[in-house]
TrEMBL record:
Family annotation (InterPro entries): Aminoglycoside_PTrfase, Kinase-like_dom_sf, P-loop_NTPase, T6A_TsaE
Protein location: Cytoplasm
Top-rank lineage group of the source organism: Bacteria
Keyword terms, alphabetized: ATP-binding, Cytoplasm, Magnesium, Metal-binding, Nucleotide-binding, Transferase, tRNA processing
Keyword Transferase: yes
GO cellular component labels: cytoplasm
Name the UniProt record assigns to this protein: tRNA threonylcarbamoyladenosine biosynthesis protein TsaE
Record-linked NCBIfam families: T6A_YjeE
Any one GO MF annotation of this record: metal ion binding
Gene name linked to the record: tsaE
Length: 458
């Protein structure tokens, strides 16, 4: 499907910067269009965005045919203008054919090529009746979203900002940093509305959610305050001496959060819902032929978790979604799926992290800290904690298997042994004896089983 953009010079450059933030070598970008269309303007914005503070002057390669550049990530960028090319065999002399095997190549006048490189993307820039505008046509996967992101950034008044990719998560969301401006969230899933609602609630109650600087909820775009790079996971790895202080702050945040009245706009995460979520384990994990798993978890939840009213739960509450800001409140990320759940839910999320090890001594100390601050009875809370931990572990194992099998993302399989260890520790609680018996014959995610999952395809 063709994506057409009617673009100013600013939007054209913003589009180039947005493409520069998401593309990886090897890549061939074919810039088609007549003389004066703006091909070099696009290429210049792309190259300078990749180079950042080390940006060089980017002249037109009309007479040299090829100019090469390096970016700070170690990528070589070739900018070729083939207008004066008389014979495709000259490409071999220029080295362009070889460069396309490992570099990013921006090629003007691509019709001079003897063949279109495999996987090349074409951006056709042409005239518009308005001489100040250009028509940009693109027909490659993701072109529509790329154009929409650039349009949003320009409309927000930041069309000149550099764009840098940020690590995403297991969802369809993507994040980009606009240095000195904020963080762009691109969420095509439709969860921007809940994110905005939850942001307002959190900020209104004094928690560290980011300010919203600009929004287009219908398109799924937000420009957010940049809370910085000091993710708690990173700080704990670099500064283990801060471990107790940080974990105390996390627990105290939850104590404060759970003192708030649960807002009416969040859905309940009750026993039935917990059971349904655990069914992912049955659907995707090899050897998990357990048709009654969801029912058992729902029954255990009703039995072990019904003594306390639900509390607000941010749900995906772990060290990679928290930002350390010194004396300022912990920064919060990725909370659009907030629910009303048993108070142990987020404590489990923080202390049984799929991505990083938490010392069991730290886990026990933080459970004790939470109980001391809330005055809750220890025995029933620990039983509920164990059940929620087991349910979360089963769901996460199912999610990681699904990511590998359905979505082609096998990197999450490496976390499975840690999650399995959490599951075994939780199952040791006497109240979970029926669940422990049901899972007794399910194989552990050893290297062979993870390899089996990685080879699966729908």
């Amino acid at each position: 499907m063709n994506t057409r953009l009617i673009a100013t010079e600013t939007l054209t450059a913003a589009l180039a910067r947005m493409l520069a933030a998401q593309i990886a070598p090897p890549a061939a970008i074919l810039l088609d269009g007549p003389v004066g269309a703006g091909k070099t303007h696009f290429a210049r914005a792309f190259i300078r965005a990749r180079q950042g503070d080390a940006a060089e002057d980017v002249p037109s390669p009309t007479f040299t045919l090829v100019q090469t550049y390096d970016d700070p990530m170690g990528t070589q960028i070739w900018h070729a203008d083939l207008y004066r090319l008389t014979d495709p065999s000259e490409l071999t002399e220029l080295g362009l054919d070889e460069a396309m095997e490992d570099a990013i190549c921006l090629i003007e006048w691509p019709d001079r090529l003897d063949h279109v490189p495999p996987g090349a993307i074409t951006i056709a820039i042409g005239a518009d009746p308005d001489p100040d505008l250009r028509r940009i046509d693109m027909a490659f996967p993701g072109a529509d979203r790329l154009a929409a992101r650039a349009t949003f950034v320009v409309a927000a008044g930041h069309g000149d900002a550099r764009v840098l990719p940020l690590a995403g998560d297991a969802s369809a969301r993507r994040y980009f940093r606009l240095p000195g401006v904020g963080v762009l969230m691109d969420d095509p899933s439709g969860s921007v509305g809940p994110f905005l609602t939850m942001t307002d609630w959190l900020r209104g109650h004094g928690f560290g959610a980011p300010r919203v600087l600009a929004q287009d909820a219908d398109q799924g775009f937000l420009l957010l305050e940049d809370l910085g790079d000091d993710l708690v996971a990173r700080v704990l790895a670099d500064r283990p001496d801060l471990g107790q202080q940080i974990h105390d702050r996390i627990t105290d945040l939850l104590v404060d959060l759970h003192r708030q009245r649960v807002p009416t706009f969040v859905a309940p995460l009750d026993g039935a819902a917990m059971g349904d979520l655990a069914a992912l384990f049955v659907d995707y994990y090899p050897g998990a032929d357990l048709p009654d798993l969801a029912t058992l978890i729902a029954d255990l939840h009703d039995r072990l978790c019904g003594d306390l009213p639900p509390a607000i739960s941010l749900r995906d509450f772990h060290a990679e979604n928290l930002v350390w800001r010194g004396d300022a409140p912990l920064g919060l990320l990725d909370y659009q799926d907030a629910v009303a759940a048993h108070p142990a839910y987020d404590l489990v999320s923080a202390l049984q992290d799929a991505r990083r090890d938490v010392d069991p001594t730290t886990e026990q100390a933080q459970i004790a800290r939470y109980l001391a601050a809330t005055g809750l009875a220890e025995a029933p809370f620990r039983a509920a904690y164990a059940l929620i931990g087991a349910q979360r572990a089963l769901r996460i194992l199912g999610v990681f298997a699904r990511l590998a099998i359905r979505d082609g993302k096998p990197r999450y399989l490496a976390f499975m042994p840690r999650v399995w260890a959490h599951l075994q520790r939780d199952l040791a609680h006497p109240a979970l004896a029926p669940l422990r018996a049901m899972l007794a014959n399910v194989p552990a995610p050893d290297a062979a089983l993870r390899e089996r999952i990685a080879r699966c395809r729908p």
